[in-house]
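From the shared-data thread, chain only:
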Amino acid sequence: MGNNRSRVAPARRFGMIDSHTRAQSQNQRELIQLRRKLVNINIKHSEAMARLASNRHDAKVTLHELQHETKQRQLIKNRDKRM
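Structure, as tokens:
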């Protein structure tokens, strides 16, 4: 086994491959977890933006309705003054 001409790799090399493989798989798991977190953050951000857009639309509709009612009242007052 101590033969320098031996074509068999030393036992330590397998340990290095195993530790390298372990590190690779651990890095891969961390990468997957980080991607999941990023996806969840993007989902929460999209939901928040949709909620804000909906609230903004509701506010615009309410404002438009109030402006319309105000104009209607003014028209009625102007009509009553003429009579």
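The chain has a mean pLDDT of 86.
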